[in-house]
């Protein structure tokens, strides 16, 4: 394939039908990393047609689960073979550190192996006792059909794997549209699927913008399921487009995630150091460009000043730079647009009365290399309140806001006062209290005395406007299946309901 043949349909790499091209930029210095095809609605239509044929006429949906599992394991092995190359590509494309890129590859590998193991051990379905020895009743699971997948720019490969692995394990075919900003590792993944022996037409890829490519996939009559990870506004449009066809829809739409820290977590020097360190990790990993980022620090009033002072001091010492350089702890924002958005959120917070404790500006050219990338200093905003825009909306940048509480009930109230409900954290030395608070938080994942780890065997998703459906775990596989009840009468006879 040439550089601009990044669209994969029915086993072939090709350019966009209309000839469109797009430059992929390195966010560390705004130079061109690659040029890819900029697809449109005709490319999406061709990809869906290929996936439809592969599902209706091809072998993959009827391939035994053991063989599907074996292919997923081959993909996992290939991911590890290419770990350094993929990690480097992810670092350069998305702006994260090289070590984060490597970790992403390992997490993707784990997802493929998990779903391989999950289906490999399945039997012929769940036998249902009909209460009649002459009836054999069983519940089976079948693939949904053609799946359309739209993935975000912040974790391109990871989010792709959360959709691709269970979809293939269940026997589906698919069309995937990565973010037009960060498509490179998804292209690599599709190459590995072909190398592992996936039949042509099962995996199809269209690079291009959300409108028209994503919009066309969401409304396409031959798509049976649409899985979208991204922002609330775009996710709402996807759901509206899918509604007339009554498609299955899975949406992960981000979060505004609280990190609740009780004073007793800071009662010892070790506890204090841990809570501050975890607050930094919660907010500033990948420059805050994480759907589950702990961007809202909710701290008990009695330890607020000491905690925030130390937090701000450490935030100022975070080393910014190109993610592939030794010693760099935080890379750039993904684009000029995201940088401008971050600046606007900080400006609005200061106008509404927030107090700047650290950051709040682009770093000086002498403080970061390269100097012309999309960098923004890790920012701590104190004295924040619930009416602020920076508190209510998902900022997706290196911004940490600080709110305070006095009682446990107040802490829970603040943490739940959001339209979102993706994730949250609770730090306390009192195990009973930590678990009690965790049980009251209306968030899909709650960490106690930790922040950010996830397990492929545990479901991921949110409450409220964080979306519908779940990824990972058994429910993540179930999203890509239809459930069928097969009732067999072993001794058929006339019913004689009607006399004639």
TrEMBL record:
Active-site residues?
Answer: 252
Its pathway? Amine and polyamine biosynthesis; betaine biosynthesis via choline pathway; betaine from betaine aldehyde: step 1/1
Q: Which residues form the Aldehyde dehydrogenase domain?
A: 13-486
Domain of life assignment: Bacteria
Protein keywords = NAD, Oxidoreductase
PANTHER family to which the protein is assigned, alphabetical: BETAINE ALDEHYDE DEHYDROGENASE (PTHR43860), BETAINE ALDEHYDE DEHYDROGENASE-RELATED (PTHR43860:SF2)
Annotated family: Belongs to the aldehyde dehydrogenase family.
Protein name per the record = Aldehyde dehydrogenase family protein
Q: What is the lineage of its organism?
A: Bacteria, Bacillati, Actinomycetota, Actinomycetes, Kitasatosporales
């Amino acid at each position: 394939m040439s550089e601009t043949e990044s669209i994969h349909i029915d086993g072939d790499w090709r350019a966009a039908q209309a000839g469109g091209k797009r430059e992929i930029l390195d966010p560390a210095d705004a130079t061109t990393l690659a040029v890819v095809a900029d697809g449109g609605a005709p490319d999406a239509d061709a990809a869906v047609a290929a996936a439809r044929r592969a599902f209706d006429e091809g072998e993959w949906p009827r391939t035994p689960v053991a063989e599907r599992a074996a292919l997923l394991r081959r993909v996992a092995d290939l991911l590890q073979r290419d770990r350094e190359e993929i990690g480097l590509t992810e670092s350069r494309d998305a702006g994260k550190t090289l070590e984060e890129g490597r970790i992403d590859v390992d997490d993707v590998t784990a997802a493929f192996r998990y779903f391989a193991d999950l289906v490999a051990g399945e039997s012929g379905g769940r036998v249902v006792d009909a209460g009649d020895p002459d009836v054999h009743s069983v519940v089976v699971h079948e693939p949904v059909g053609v799946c359309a997948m739209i993935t975000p720019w912040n974790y391109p490969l990871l989010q792709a794997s959360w959709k691709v692995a269970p979809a293939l394990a269940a026997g589906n075919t698919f069309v995937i549209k990565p973010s037009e900003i960060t498509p490179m590792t998804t292209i690599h993944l599709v190459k590995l699927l072909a190398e592992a022996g996936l039949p042509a037409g099962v995996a199809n890829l269209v690079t291009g913008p959300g409108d028209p490519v994503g919009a066309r996939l969401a409304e396409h009559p031959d798509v049976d399921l649409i899985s979208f990870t991204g922002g609330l506004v775009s996710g709402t449009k996807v759901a509206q487009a899918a509604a007339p066809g009554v498609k299955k829809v899975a949406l992960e739409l981000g979060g505004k995630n609280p990190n609740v820290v009780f004073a007793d977590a800071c009662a010892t020097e070790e506890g204090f150091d841990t809570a501050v360190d975890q607050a930094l990790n919660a907010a500033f990993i990948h420059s805050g460009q994480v759907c589950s980022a702990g961007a809202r620090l909710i701290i008990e009033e009695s330890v607020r000043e000491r905690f925030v002072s130390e937090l701000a001091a450490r935030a100022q010492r975070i080393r910014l730079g190109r993610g592939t350089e030794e010693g760099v702890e935080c890379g750039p924002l993904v684009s000029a647009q995201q940088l401008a958005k971050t600046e606007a959120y900080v400006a609005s917070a200061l106008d509404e009365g927030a107090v700047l404790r650290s950051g709040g500006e682009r770093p000086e050219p002498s403080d970061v290399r390269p100097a012309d990338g999309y960098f923004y200093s890790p920012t701590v905003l104190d004295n924040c309140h619930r009416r602020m825009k920076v508190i209510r909306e998902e900022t997706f940048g290196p911004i940490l806001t600080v709110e305070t509480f006095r009682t446990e009930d107040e802490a829970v109230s603040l943490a739940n006062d959001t339209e979102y409900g993706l994730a949250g954290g609770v730090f306390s030395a009192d195990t009973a209290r930590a678990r009690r608070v965790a049980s009251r938080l209306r968030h899909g994942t709650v960490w106690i005395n930790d922040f950010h780890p996830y397990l492929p065997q545990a479901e991921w998703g949110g409450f409220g406007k964080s979306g519908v459906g779940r990824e990972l775990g058994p429910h993540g596989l179930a999203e890509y299946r239809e459930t069928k009840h097969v009732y067999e009468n072993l001794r058929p006879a006339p019913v004689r309901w009607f006399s004639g």
